[in-house]
């Protein structure tokens, strides 16, 4: 029974929780059992925020066991070393360096661009990702975030 463990980390206001909601939604749409948890810390004041997302055939706990994250997706460089011990040996680290400076039309869409990077690593159809993004954002933001998602996918494949 394969379980995929992902940790998303960043600072309050960066959309860590929204990104983890979208990831969980995309995995659910793909037919996986999904569990998620989050740790807000001092997030309202720009402090650390992490969210664990686990999916597979059957998930019993929402928490990624320490040192067993398959993917660590970080939205803020200062959070890389703080969370690196959560990543398993051979796991994938995705950081904002994946996205070239100035490419995003709105820097608030970094979380969705990073999900685009993640989508290349995971076996979840692109349509499920976009449906999940649309389900969690206002319609007026769909085009901007579709473009951000595409930037992330392109950045990871090039």
From TrEMBL:
Domain Pyruvate/ketoisovalerate oxidoreductase catalytic residues, every copy: 12-95
Gene3D superfamilies membership: Pyruvate-ferredoxin oxidoreductase, PFOR, domain III (3.40.920.10)
InterPro entries, A to Z: IorB_Oxidoreductase, Pyrv/ketoisovalerate_OxRed_cat, Pyrv_flavodox_OxRed_cen
GO terms of molecular function: oxidoreductase activity, acting on the aldehyde or oxo group of donors
UniProt keyword annotation of Lyase present: no
Keyword vocabulary terms for this entry: Oxidoreductase
Membrane spanning stretches: none
UniProt key word Manganese: no
PANTHER family to which the protein is assigned, alphabetical: INDOLEPYRUVATE OXIDOREDUCTASE SUBUNIT IORB
UniProt name for this protein: 2-oxoacid:acceptor oxidoreductase family protein
